[in-house]
Design goal:
This protein has one domain: Roll (Pnp Oxidase, Chain A), CATH 2.30.110. Helix content is 15%, strand content 46%. It is mainly β. It has 3 helices and 12 strands. The strands form 3 sheets. Strands 3-2-6-9-10-5-4 form a 7-stranded antiparallel sheet. Strands 1-11-12 form a 3-stranded antiparallel sheet, with no helix packed on it. The structure holds flavin mononucleotide. The site of flavin mononucleotide has 17 residues, from β3, β5 and α2.
Length: 158
Amino acid sequence: MPIDPKLQRTIMGRFATGVTVVTMKAGDTLWGMTANAVTSLSLDPPLVLVCVDKTTQTHGFLNEAGAFAMNILAENQEEISNRFATPGPKEFSDLDYQDGETGSPVLGGTLGYVDCRLSEVIAGGDHDIFIGEIVNGEDRGEDGGRPLLYFGGYARLG
Ligand SMILES: Cc1cc2nc3c(=O)[nH]c(=O)nc-3n(C[C@H](O)[C@H](O)[C@H](O)COP(=O)(O)O)c2cc1C
């Protein structure tokens, strides 16, 4: 018998993660989506992946943009996480951001980011797996910045 999706969500919610916002520029449209189904995939070549629900608008914008930045949120960026977890157009006008090498918006105040060109999209049930090759990145966590965590809900390091 297939597992109840709610149970799958609850079990996998026990797997604590950080929180990222995956941002992109498709034509003139700036877009982003909060994502924790992300991982570093390969060092040579340098690859990361993000799993994206096929019903989100982000899915189409990612394909159109052909690039994305993965921004790792700091513990004081819960509002940004909520903003990019709300379906529909995303407000960037009041955000601190810069254009990355790929044109993807790189958010300020994070613990770091990687800027990627889309390398491959692999089917994964009701999600697709977007693999990006890193072209640039920055570590901003050296001075002890603390991450926003997700563990069934938002959490912080104790
Ligand atoms: C902490 C957190 C993590 C999330 N991770 C993902 C994820 O990895 N993949 C995904 O498709 N949606 C994820 N979501 C849900 C999307 O952020 C949400 O569906 C968003 O509204 C999509 O926006 P859009 O439909 O305007 O593209 C997550 C939400 C939260 C709060």
